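Assemble and predict.
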Amino acid sequence: MGFFTYDVNRYTPKQMVVIPAIILMVALALLTYNIATIGLPVEPGLDFAGGTAVTLHTTDTEETLISTFAAYPLITPLQGGQSTGYYLKFEPMSDDDLQSLIAFVNERYPDAKIDQIGETFGKTLQQQALLALAISFIGMSIVVFVAFRAVVPSFAVVLSAFADIAVTAAVMDLVGIPLSLGTTAALLMLIGYSVDSDILLTTRVLKRKGKLEERFAGAYRTGIIMTTTTLAAIAAMWAVSFLGQIPVIMEISSVLLIGLAVDLMNTWMTNAGLLKWHVQRSEAR
Amino acid sequence: MRADDVKRLLRDWRVLLVVILTIASLIAIFPHIDDGKPATALQFGLDLEGGAWLQLEFKAVIAGFDTDRPVQDFVGDLQKRLDAEVYLVEENKLEIRRLYTEPELASAFSASGGQLVSYEQGVSRATADDVKRILEDKLNSLGTRDAKVNTLTSLSGIARYVRVELAGVDMTTARDIVGKQGKFEIRIVTSGNQTEHVLFGDAITSVGVPERDPQQGTWGVPFTLSDEGAAAFRRAAIDHNAVNDPDNHELIMLLDNRSVYSAPLSPDLANQLRSGPVRVLSASTGAGQEALDRAMALEIHLRAGALPVEVSVAGSGSVPASLGDHFKTMCLYAGILAVLTVGAVVYFRYREPMVVFPMMAINVAEIIILLGIARFIQQLDLAAIAGIIAVLGTGIDQLVVITDEVLHEGRVPSPNLYLKRLSRALGIIVVAAATVVIAMLPLVLMDLSTLRGFAIVTIIGVLIGVLVTRPAYGRIIMTILSR
């Protein structure tokens, strides 16, 4: 692959770990700042914040839409706007207002999709989603420790999975992808993807015979092709959902794309660096 | 590949299993043409089918308590103080069918001589099941096609939400249907098949849960009438001589003009009615399991579709059918494009059709089997489809691990060494699969209903891969490479 040259054997463990460590620190600082200011690591979407969203396809301009919905608590600027699809978000409103909005939308844009989440329900979903994330992460860590029964390699796998999620969440926040049910699922899925290549790397390096450089290089070859095939599948999903305006799938695939890119860094810098340090240290003894 | 290779492969049970499962799944999915449009037996979720959903929240509390008083006295006291139905659902847990805040309950509990130990909004599983039954019955009786009702139960077993999905209707209609009460009426037989109006459902002030008469062993549903209702009931029974000749003057209960129950007055009740109005009545359905079922159905009718617990709308949504169709087409394109792109990437890496072809074939078989199983247990919504495409990604990942592992150092190893390498590759895959399953498990167990499908599809996909398709791929690639 010509567009990307990186040789796992050329750098010392310290050199490999330092860049991702700085990125992780920055990401954690951003997430902590968000928790302190908005109560959540990433700006919540409709599912968690509550409110009403209307997805519609129309040739009306943005100004027309804003004046059309002037009577309702529309959040501007409008999102979406690619081709003719719009995603209109409204603040939480009373049930009567909501009923009238629904009737209005049904009459004027009969093909619109409407979603409405109450604030308390959003809160419940929020708690459950964060709990799900925590339980998944702990469960994954246990599986990894049981599988390897060695502290440093297991720690390296768990750390890079953690860094994948944290950095991806920070990037989501920067590019404006909200935390929703779909993106929480994508973050959970990242645990699986992340661990895939980490386990390959660890198993190849620890259990195979031969020179250390060859073991790393072999694992790297396989690992890159694994991640690129997955990236290809997700990119196809992203492209179709972008062209076809399917917000849920577009959010999920965007997060997975970011996450897989972050995972490339964490697997081949963080995890590989720690593993190299571990192997060199135990072979020196 | 030569013909005898194929024959040899088909004799391997792992490969045979994949072939059989793929064919069985294709039959289960049953792709066909219906009205000139392609159709399958797959169940699609609301966002692909079009329709509306409502998420209802129970206005009730499950409260743990501690008291030195006899439980019955304590509960009786609380019931009066809170002016709400209070039921004992566990040894030390109460269901309070009205929404009070935690401090409000705490003070009511201590005033009744007890202590509030735990507080969670929601209802017990039994009540949630009642609600589900009532809603299903109501939706069916209104002839709504394809209605689904699911209660969402938290890990502690308390249900706080119930989700209603109605295919093919818009949100306003859905809210109307769920909120609509049936028209309930009691009539009395005057002569032959002539009947006369006695009272409407608004005269019924409360309905109890089915009870068993301890003496006769018969099931009955207790209900209470308002003062005017009780007077009207007495007048009708006396005027039409039902008190003296009950068997020829049966009482008939109608829901939306459909008879749901009819029975003569009992001798006991006839006697009581002679001396004055009776407010508390019980409609008996006889003894045995069948009678209990009838009593449960009657309870719903008496409530006229009203729920035992007040609910509020916590969320709702709708997808027009046309948009659902659009999503469905797009998902199909996304799937096909994903398979093709993955194929291209794999080909770019291996440049060997004999490796790439079986890889893609196994990958496609895996998805067909996944769909075949999903057809029976899980409806496919947008999130579930994203799960399928994600599984396609991990699936091909793991086939790459196997291929690279056995092709190590570019030489095809001896069968012995081959099997050793294959089992090492499968070892990597099993650990990776276990972590995915563990990561997805919380979503299956939790209330996040829309993500359940995603998690279930992902888990099934991973399991099919580990148990069925990856071992078969190992065999196929061995046969091909050892030529």
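The first helix of chain A runs from residue 13 to 38.
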